[in-house]
Design brief:
Blueprint: E1 2-6, H1 11-19, E2 25-29, H2 39-47, E3 53-56, H3 63-66, H4 70-90, E4 95-100, H5 123-138, E5 142-147, E6 150-151, H6 158-166, E7 171-175, E8 179-180, E9 183-184, H7 185-200, E10 206-209, E11 216-217, H8 218-229, E12 234-238, H9 258-264, H10 271-281
Helix pairs in contact: 1-7, 2-4, 4-5, 6-8, 8-10
The chain binds NADPH dihydro-nicotinamide-adenine-dinucleotide phosphate (NDP).
Length: 285
């Protein structure tokens, strides 16, 4: 199976490349080869692809920066996604597109199923939602896979921030009223490859959720990072209101992942197990 992978350097894309083996051949496209600020260039490139499936792991993920650079976030998360999805649909190439819990407003306490109404709180979520809608409008074969709180040994993420802060701080105040599923990029990568294979074998797609289990608060995630890495850091729970940021974040990021297990046989991974692997890779245990 030939997979065209957009986003070579990101957390998820890096893991897709590491997991490609056997009959899976991955052709990557980085920012130089496929600049998502240029939807026409993405269309042209997509027309020339030789692939059985496409995985799009590109995104403008800088949540705060997106608030002041909406135009770029919209090009990358929406308009170029539309260009890619339209050409993929035209050429009948299945598309696996990754999206986010930030398309929801985070109200309530229950995990949200994929069909729950979307209502993003900020520009990042709004542009990602517009990208999702574009994929659905193009009516090709697709899976939109929403995930949350991604961590890996690469790039920037909460885990790496905590390890960095642990070097200089004996105590930290961490938000305890945002709840979600920390999700290993390695598990997302494995899921996207399995889904790409199923779609290219004729299975129908849709919108699905995939996050690590169990759901936790940021402070619980931090405590587990410090417990497993042996860092001596006291964590004090604080409220979101005590840590003001320009972009609002959902309080309840819990996603109901049942339909992905039912339709694709992909179950939620235990993020605490994957955390041990990532800490080992970082030499932080
Ligand atoms: P990263 O931020 O690690 O990677 C983003 C990728 O997008 C990088 O390869 C980056 O390239 C690329 N990119 C950004 N702008 C452009 C551009 N103009 N042209 C081409 N490439 C570009 O993201 P993740 O791997 O963490 O995220 C993967 C997916 O998961 C995304 O769809 C994201 O929305 C979603 N997601 C992520 C979450 C998280 O916590 N990180 C949570 C929920 C969903 P470069 O290195 O050159 O900048």
């Amino acid at each position: 199976m030939k997979i065209a992978l957009f986003g070579k350097t990101g957390q998820v894309a890096t893991e897709v490349q590491r997991r490609a083996s056997g009959d899976v051949e991955v052709q990557t496209f980085d920012r130089e080869q496929a600049d998502f600020r240029d939807p026409d260039a993405i269309s042209r490139l997509a027309r020339s692809l030789d692939a059985d499936a496409i995985i799009n792991a590109v995104a403008y993920t800088a949540v705060e920066k997106a608030e002041v650079d909406k135009a770029t976030a919209d090009l990358v998360n929406h308009l170029s996604v539309r260009a890619l999805a339209a050409t993929a649909a035209d050429r009948k190439i299945p598309l696996v597109h990754i999206s986010t819990d930030y398309i929801f407003d985070g109200s309530g306490t229950q995990p949200r199923p994929p069909e729950a109404p979307a209502s993003p709180l900020g520009v990042y979520g709004a542009t990602k939602l517009a990208g999702e809608q574009a994929v659905r409008d193009c009516a090709g074969t697709y899976v939109i896979l929403r995930t949350s709180w991604v961590f890996s040994a690469h790039g920037s993420n909460f885990l790496k921030t905590m390890l960095r802060l642990a070097k200089t701080h004996g105590s930290l105040r961490i938000v305890a009223d945002q709840i979600g599923g920390p999700t290993p990029a390695s598990a997302i990568a494995a899921a996207t490859i399995d889904i790409a294979r199923a779609l290219s074998n004729g299975q129908s797609g849709g919108t699905y959720h995939f996050t690590g289990s169990p759901d936790a608060s940021w402070s619980e995630f931090a405590r587990e990072i410090f417990r497993q890495s042996g860092a001596r850091v006291d964590v004090t729970d604080i409220a979101t209101a005590d840590y003001p940021t320009s972009a609002r974040r959902p309080l309840n990021s819990c996603l109901d992942c049942e339909s992905l297990a039912r339709d694709f046989g992909v179950s939620r991974p235990d993020w605490r197990v994957a955390l041990a692997d990532v800490l080992k890779e970082l030499g932080a245990t």
